[in-house]
Design brief:
Layout lengths: L1 E3 H7 L10 E5 L5 E7 L2 E9 L5 E7 L2 E9 L5 E7 L2 E9 L5 E7 L2 E9 L3
Amino acid sequence: MDYNLKYLKYLNLKNSKIKGGKNKITYPDGTYYEGDINNGIKEGKGKHTWINGSYYEGEWKNNKRDGKGKMFYSNGAIYEGEFKNGRKEGIGKHITNQGWIYEGEWEKGKKMEMVNLLIFH
């Protein structure tokens, strides 16, 4: 089902009858989410697409990226790995738009310890 955020707010998003299953929410800024919704929040697996072309596909918890997922940036960079509370957290791999590959541990969205740095030309 496709829902407009204004309509969901009118229904009182968290108390609405939209539970379980695959749904689509379109936000006023043009971004949209397709995936699991539980009690009006992103929970489970889904894809959020921003108007600049960036998108995240993976696990969600309490409306935030949480668990395993992939973030595709509009500049061509890709991050694949773990997220917690909306940020890169745990083990992951970031491929820059120039082809540099960083593999290692992330904490609160920042590289902590680099295990591998691979450069391709």
